[in-house]
Amino acid sequence: MLTKLEREVLTDSILKIESIQASLDHIDNAKIHGIEEIHSCLETADRSFRLALIGGPRPKKPSKHS
Known about the structure:
Layout: H1 4-24, H2 35-54
Helix pairs in contact: 1-2
């Protein structure tokens, strides 16, 4: 379970990601190398933070014996 501070940090991070995504909408994608990867990374981070806020699934930790 997340603490109040952790929830606030995640919420703030989500808002920052949304702001970055909106800012990138005003730039010609051809002028930024790797823009697709940047968008993908931002979407993944946003999804992960939102899942954490609702207590969604967490990735499994790799086994030490793998």
